[in-house]
Amino acid sequence: MRIKPGLPYPLGATWDGIGANFALFSDNATGVELCLFDSSAATKESGRIRVKECTDRVWHVYVEGIQPGQCYGYRVEGPYDPAAGHRFNPAKVLFDPYGKAVARPVRWGDEMFGYALGGPKADLAIDRRDNAASAPLASVIDPAFTWGDDRAPRVPWHKTLIYELHVKGFTQRHPEVPESHRGKYLGLTAEAPLRHLQDLGVTAVELMPVHHFVSDRHLVEKGLSNYWGYNTLGFFSPEGRYSVSGTPDGSVREFKEMVRAFHSAGIEVILDVVYNHTAEGNELGPTLSWRGIDNASYYRLVAEDKRRYMDFTGCGNTLNMLHARVLQLIMDSLRYWVIEMRVDGFRFDLASALARELFEVDRLGAFFDVIHQDPVLSRVKLIAEPWDIGEGGYQVGNFPVLWTEWNGKYRDTIRRFWKGDGGATSEMATRLAGSSDLYEQSGRRPYASINFATAHDGFTLQDLVSFERKRNEANLEENRDGENNNLSWNCGVEGPTEEAGVIELRERQKRNILATLLLSQGAPMIRGGDELSHSQSGNNNAYCQDSELSWLDWTLDERRGRFLTFARQVARLWRDNPVFQRRKFFQGRPIRGSGIKDISWLHPSGQEMTDELWNNSAARCLGMCLSGDTLDELDDRGNPIRGDSFLLLFNANADPVEFSVGALAAAQSWEVVLDTSETVPAGRRFGSGEKYPLFARSQAVLRLARAS
Predict the structure, then answer these.
(1) What are the catalytic residues?
(2) Bridge partners, residue 686, by sequence
(3) Could you report the per-residue pLDDT of 644-657, keeping only the tens digit for each?
(4) pTM above 0.90, yes or no
(5) What is the DSSP string of 427-481?
(6) Disulfide: which of 64, 111, 136, 555 matches 129 by Cβ 3.0-4.6 Å?
(7) Is 393 in contact with 361 (CB distance < 8 Å)?
(8) What span, in angstroms and rounded, lies between the C-alpha atoms of 525 and 256?
């Protein structure tokens, strides 16, 4: 091999057809060695190359003759002085932070730690055991791929329906996916899964983490794994466990094939990304990559005790967004996934941690500034999980323009309302109308609110209405993990039951929640499997359950089949009617002198809600009338958009309510579209002066019949 100085950019390993350039940032290192391995099974290096060139704190070398598939890592020299924030240990082979593919995942052993395991201060002493046989290795790749006529769907935000999906769990038990492809990227390219998503009206899949992640040692020793994947080691590497080929190049190629298939089906791909922390944990964690490359630069350290890490994530560490090179790492990663892998957006896990400039959350921090000016990233979908566990970390409504947010207040409010809690009706109206209290003043639109009722970290929809308490014993933490929401859904019996009345109430509550979710203003998100009535047996924190507890069951009995049909029906109603997809907030007053309000709120008597009625803490029934003639929006040709008007009735009471529906329709009538109690048939009409028999704990949707 011929060795040349190489270039400091781009960072990582870059193959040019003749050889590869290697570039690694470390501000505090005193020396770097590039370690080459003949295969992923190799127990020691086949060669070490001293990296002599260092430009702007980037260590770089070019090696002629390197080919795709070459396995490599680094050894980095420098002080081992935890009190000063330094944890260099040249006995440890380290994973390249810019590695494009994983040649070998970590193999757990004591040698994977930079110190000799022992007491709470054991990390103060260096461990000099060599870990070459166990260290995670990166691979040089050939990025060539034939995209053909691939085009990004570019679905407008107000027409977006998101489906949260786990790559493995979605197809692992799917009978119409080839067995070898189940649970893999290629499983998602099969006709049946794509057709299912299309039939449900899905326009974007939000993939749970697919960056290469690590299963913590304590989980592996218990026979569990980090199934969800929120424990990243490779910000550029697709997770190899989801590859059919099992090769580094294959994982990259198959990921691209998956994206291409989704795009062909008109579905965007959004990645759930974890840039707030890494898989290395706190000061007692392993040395896998960043810690041994430049701990003081990559991590937020406690100023008074640099041995320790600032932890805003609950995972032991927080990446140091104040350092320009760390910020560059994240931005380079994001651009790579958009440009090279062609994804359409990102959901940022614990995004508040990324916004912390010093200690407080700063919504105008450098992270946002860099994204907003970036010509690539400013054009894709950006979703924040707007909280972390640090002080002041709950930031729902405080992210800037260009950003949408998981609206935790929406989730909490519609749950409270349908449980029958008093005092939730007024806020329920605000959430139904797009949460203008959170987003309008900052110049954002209703679709800034990502509306959801359930997500991966909590009960499934089926379990939400079936369990009052979490059942997480399978996680082997004595049921201490996960939040205990004590939902008290008044569904009669907790857990599985054959009581017809209890079953029907649960099914109705599921229909209530899903219909509310899909017909609220904002961008709806469905947790994958909710439409299939997936249950995790009450486990609301199945992060470590890579088993049938988490994998979706595609066999449908009559009950589950009926709910899937209902979900598709409501999704079509949302998709086909622009009044549910407004791009502007409601004004709640007559539009352009027409005398017609864009939105009206009704008491069961038929009169509009007054302050006195809104303040009635016992009120659990509400009507919402949406005018399709007051959208105040234009289509692609510049013509005013007109649509049907709808009346939505919500009754969270344990008793039925007679709801007067005729007042707003004058001489016209309202036609039933759906009723979650299934007691009033679709197509039945109610005219002026008539009352709708709104069943206990039910929702009805009526369309204004057009004058003939």
Answers:
(1) 349, 385
(2) 670
(3) 999 999 999 999 99
(4) yes
(5) HHHHHHTT-HHHHTTTT--GGGEEE-S--SSS--HHHHTT-SS---GGGSSTT-S
(6) 111
(7) yes
(8) 24
